[in-house]
Write a structure and sequence with these properties.
78% of the residues lie in helices and 0% in strands. It is mainly alpha-helical. The protein has a domain at 44-86. It is globular and about 50 Å long.
């Protein structure tokens, strides 16, 4: 799967998940997302190299977290909680 295909796959999956999370308290939503993120990271392994595995997971987590701030404004506009002044 190339990057364009991956980007196109994200929207429909998010839309399937959104109603499930929307029914939950924000604390539960956060816990679910945290657990899913940990599950995703746990899937990355450098066979036979514990330190390289830890480094890879740390790098992936940092890259993932770095993307979130850019998505907050986009999502805030979508759900009507945008704080920017027009």
């Amino acid at each position: 799967m190339d990057d364009d295909e991956a980007v196109r796959a994200v929207g429909p999956l998010v839309e399937k998940i959104r109603p499930i999370l929307a029914e939950q308290d924000p604390g539960i939503q956060g816990a679910v997302l945290c657990d899913l993120l940990a599950m995703w990271l746990a899937g990355f392994v450098v066979p036979g190299d514990v330190e390289a595995t830890k480094k890879l997971r740390d790098e992936l987590l940092a890259a993932h977290v770095a993307e979130v701030p850019g998505l907050i404004a986009i999502n805030a506009k979508m759900i009507g909680t945008d704080l920017s002044e027009d």
